[in-house]
Structure formats: structure tokens, C-alpha cells
Design a protein that fits this description.
This protein has one domain: Cyclophilin-like (Cyclophilin, Beta Barrel). The chain is globular, with a radius of gyration of 17 Å. A hairpin with a 3-residue loop joins strand 4 and strand 5. It is of the alpha+beta class. The strands form two sheets. It has an eight-stranded antiparallel beta sheet.
């Protein structure tokens, strides 16, 4: 039986009917799934030797403000079961770029999945139905990022954006571990102003289209898991 991490839904719901699927109602809004747990994270003898602090919403911004000064990479390659997707990350959204580079260097995205797919809308990734992803998040920390929506970017086809993190989140703070790519031709501009666009696909939209076309269940999870094999920095 599939173990699905239940992350909370975004504040915005449009409840639009997915015209591509009969007898199925789809919310055309990026959302995160969250599993609540009462277990305390285990500590290890080497925990005090961490190269970075355990991140919280209180220290994350200061951490990324310093991190982005020394980590200027802005191109990544997402290797999937369907092929490669190359992404250019925007310098203007520096906290979100730095966050993505940080997680890439930690190999966080490796073996996560495209867990929400809506054809003619978007594909969403960075989560998983395995406990390994939850352990990675516990080790990195629990934090959200502020929205950064006034940089002149809009939700055109091919942009990469960050979904909101929690249902009780009126400011739509971003969930740092997940992202979505707009696949809709003509864009999804009803999302403008609510979600932070921090990059765009520069190669591999054909791969995005293939992922978007797979069969899904009623929760928009692909019937066959689509894995991110790795995310790596490229020149």
C-alpha cells in the first residue's frame, strides 16, 4: 500500500474541473502534502559537526542571505525517468535560488518524485511516498520562505515556481522543498502574485509534457511513480 506523505493544502482553491479527465475534480492550485508525526528526531554523535545549522523559519533568511553570497550557481539539471530538464534560476529571487542550490548540493531532490501532475496545467515535484524523504527534511530543518512576487515574472509556460507551505498560511509562505513547473500553454497567470517564480526551463519542456500526460489517480498522483534520479548543478 502506498504511503503518502500528507502535506497541507495551499490556501487558494479554485476547484476547477480537469477537462482532460472525466468524473474527476481537480484543484488548479499548487499544493503541498504533509505528514504529521509526534516522533522526536533522533540525534547522532556527529550532529554538532554539521556543516550548516538546522534551519527554522527564524534563522533561514539570515542563513540564505549569507549562503547566496558564496554560492552563485544558477543552472541545474533535473534527471527524470522521462529525460532531462535544464533550469535557469533567477538571480533576482536570491533566497529561492540559494535555497534550491543548497538543497541540490545536499542531494535532497535525488529519489524524490513528481507527485502531483495535472495535464494542461503543471507538474509538481520534490516530495515522495517514502520515509527517506521525511528523514532528509528532518535533518535539514522545518522552515518556510517568504514570497517574492514583484520581480516582473509571470506564470508563463515553462517557469518554475514554489508552492505555499501550510493551510494556516495567509501570507502564502513558500514550501522550500517542493516546486512546480507550469506546463499549460499560454501560461497559468491566475497564479501570479501568489507564488514565487524563481526560474525557467531552458531545455526539456518536451520531458515536462511527457510527465504531464501520464495517467493519475484522483489525487493527481501518477499511477506509476515518476522519480527524480538526481538534480545537479551545470554550467
Amino acid at each position: 500500500m502506498r504511503f503518502i506523505l500528507l502535506f497541507c493544502t495551499c490556501a487558494l482553491f479554485l476547484n476547477c474541473e480537469d477537462k482532460q479527465k472525466q468524473n474527476k475534480t481537480t484543484s488548479k492550485t499548487p499544493k503541498v502534502e504533509q505528514k504529521e508525526t509526534n516522533k522526536k528526531p533522533k540525534t547522532t554523535p556527529n550532529e554538532e559537526e554539521r556543516e550548516f545549522p538546522k534551519l527554522t523559519s527564524k534563522n533561514a533568511m539570515d542563513f540564505f542571505l549569507e549562503y547566496e553570497k558564496h554560492n552563485k550557481e544558477n543552472k541545474v539539471r533535473i534527471t527524470t525517468d522521462f529525460g532531462d530538464i535544464d533550469i535557469l534560476l533567477y538571480d533576482k529571487t536570491k533566497f529561492h535560488r540559494a535555497n534550491f542550490i543548497f538543497l541540490t548540493k545536499l542531494n535532497y531532490f535525488d529519489n524524490t518524485q513528481f507527485y502531483r501532475v495535472i495535464n494542461n496545467f503543471m507538474v509538481q515535484a520534490g516530495n515522495s511516498d517514502t520515509r527517506a524523504t521525511a528523514r532528509k527534511r528532518t535533518n535539514i530543518g522545518r522552515y518556510l520562505l517568504p514570497t517574492d512576487t514583484k520581480r516582473g515574472y509571470t506564470h508563463e509556460r515553462g517557469v518554475i515556481s514554489m508552492p505555499s507551505g501550510e493551510i494556516d498560511n495567509p501570507y502564502k509562505l513558500a514550501s522550500p522543498f517542493e516546486f512546480f513547473i507550469v506546463q499549460q500553454r499560454g501560461g497559468a497567470h491566475f497564479l501570479d502574485g501568489d507564488y514565487t517564480i524563481f526560474g525557467k526551463v531552458i531545455r526539456g519542456m518536451d520531458v515536462v509534457d511527457k510527465i504531464a500526460a501520464v495517467d493519475t489517480d484522483e489525487a493527481d498522483w501518477p499511477l506509476e511513480n515518476i522519480y527524480i534520479k538526481k538534480v545537479e548543478i551545470i554550467k
